[in-house]
């Protein structure tokens, strides 16, 4: 029998090493923007259960309802049965399966480009690409509202970052002129659809700039994939700019319903990324089920374009009703929405989070978004319509929004 005395386990809260994190959380609590994660009890759907409560769900990126489409589920199950649950390695060592190559060929054909590479997520696609194609002599011209994964990729590249005002092409040109005679390469990068405001990037005008100054043109189409363009080919296709954009990024995690990100472009771009993009080299590839799911989703985009039509009809109806009820859905101090992303601008962070909680208590899941996801003072409830919401569900959501806004005195202009 041991005679050693057992020391009491030190509790995490008593160790001082991470006290600075606790201080940040205390500050969030004081500002009213601390949140707990809402937990989904069942499937991602227009009506589902979070934290045990039935809600109308306006918070997902499941634009086309593909997260639980029977054909996609069947494809995932079949791939799992025949190919297993994991790929076993990173792509460059032993983890490239035939199904990964098939998915990349399918996406390249869909987008009308030479080649495609799939990453583990849209985040790693952006960060891995931007960081690997540029170096410290180079320049990145980036819209101020571009996604965090672009910003992180830009920082990792060590290129000099020039941020232009949101969608301000003249400002982008001013910045380009300043560095025009520097030896480094220039990359112009924009979101196709901006994730927090739902407005569309000025792609043709930025392509003009890229052509004029010999800059590389890159578009992150995460929120446009499956939503904009013929059969959901994205914003670049929507504007007829496929031949003028060197690098197109898309996600498989939103409208496509599964998980992943992809980069489309020339064969050389893709071969280069095979050799240099760090998430590709150092992080394991998708399980075969994910690749199979995505292939089935692209088939569906071609076979059932009516889903995309329903999505846009629902979004238009919802936004028209919100506007006539007096909600500020952007366009005054923030950009106006042009896509199914529908921000209801509140402003103050605490008021935003309180409003979101009040909506939840009435049976509406609509997430409050505050600093640092959006700028301080630009808090909003972000609603995303899907093709699968029914009119009675949308009307009920509108009723809850209006009643809650009247009761709490926020949201209505
Ligand atoms: C969601 C999003 C990403 C990241 O995509 P994931 O596949 O979720 O990692 C990248 N860019 C933009 C603009 C996004 O909205």
Key structural traits:
413 residues; alpha/beta; Aspartate Aminotransferase, domain 1; Aspartate Aminotransferase, domain 2; 2 domains; 7-stranded mixed beta sheet; binds pyridoxal-5'-phosphate; ligase; ligase activity; PyrdxlP-dep_Trfase_major; pyridoxal phosphate binding; transferase
Can you lay out the helices and strands and say which pair or pack?
Elements lengths: L18 H13 L15 E4 L2 E5 L12 H14 L14 H14 L3 E5 L2 H12 L5 E5 L4 H10 L2 E5 L4 H11 L6 E6 L11 H11 L2 E5 L14 H4 L8 E5 L9 E5 L1 H10 L1 H5 L5 H16 L2 H20 L15 E7 L1 H13 L2 E2 L1 E3 L9 E6 L6 H18 L5
Helix pairs in contact: 2-11, 3-11, 4-5, 6-7, 12-14
The structure holds pyridoxal-5'-phosphate.
The site of pyridoxal-5'-phosphate (PLP) has 14 residues, from helix 4.
Subunit structure: Homodimer.
Protein name: 8-amino-7-ketopelargonate synthase
Function: Catalyzes the decarboxylative condensation of pimeloyl-[acyl-carrier protein] and L-alanine to produce 8-amino-7-oxononanoate (AON), [acyl-carrier protein], and carbon dioxide.
